[in-house]
Prior knowledge:
Layout: H1 4-14, H2 31-42, H3 44-48, E1 50-63, E2 72-83, E3 86-96, E4 99-100, H4 107-111, E5 116-118, H5 119-130, H6 146-149, E6 159-169, E7 172-181, E8 188-189, E9 199-204, E10 211-219, H7 228-231, E11 234-235, H8 245-254, E12 269-278, E13 285-298, E14 306-322, E15 327-329
Amino acid sequence: MVSKARALAAIIALLGLPSSPTMARQSGDLDPVLEKMGQYVAGYGEKASVVVGVEKYTQSINTEQGEPTRPRQLVAEFAIVKASDGWIGFRDVVQVDRTKVADRQDRLARLFTEAAVDVSEMTRIANESARYNVGPVATNLNLPTTALFFFQPQNLPRFTFKKAGVKKIDGVDTVEIAFKETKSPTLIGTRAGRDVPMEGTLWVVPEDGTVVRTRLRLRGFADRTTTKEQEAPKQRPTANPNVQTGGREALAIAAGTPDPFDARDIKSVADIETTYRRDATTGLWLPARMEEQYEGAIKVGAKPPFFGMSTTRATYSEYKQFGAGAQVKIPKAP
């Protein structure tokens, strides 16, 4: 196991500030829409400040062994929090398969009543919650706001964009935009440092840049390892200082001892779709539902890994907005 000092150093390094490239021109008539979208994403945390909602999250597994598995049902608090350098998403599981987790009710809400929120405490909460995932779920990507946060203005030049059509979502007219990451190193990489380019689709209101739906797809994000923690991808320091908990969490977990069963190539696929809806209480566009599909290796005890598929569905409701005073203080890299 690594020392606490090394783990902390790794976490701080992951939160390093990247350079601030100027906005590059994108794809013809999409330029105005993409510029508005970047501004919308950058200001998202400012508008949200501190918002906490209820997440009901079901994870189901199908395996190559055909063994019946019982769906995992989680209830959690999901928070979007203004940070010193942007915004952050967090999950705190309060109930697992209808059994309450001790001393978890309203923990995030209590934490956010403080003027300065301890990021180490929030990271610890997120790490605890990640333990309840089952199957080949990518533990640092399964937040509903993951894809949204990647499209900060400084990251847009890393992608190519193409108009794929128009679509009405829940009565809202949007332009459908296909994206593909083309710059290396990519914002997400394997533990061994191999690029994992993102691709997917964004559904954006052209008049103001509001993002109504995101779909993120990844392939080959698992290394030749077998533990669930080591299979999870990581967000690289070049991504953006506004890193969600997943990036810090993943790097800290991955510093553990390698598993001895590492002789098998792991096919890994992630497909994550989140739909946002204007919340009547806060007036903000917040996650309403998330659907995911993962393929990859599952490791149980000392047995060799076996292939499995995880499908999930999450819904979000009962959002509450707290005062603008609370703010997460994120350490910056030297």
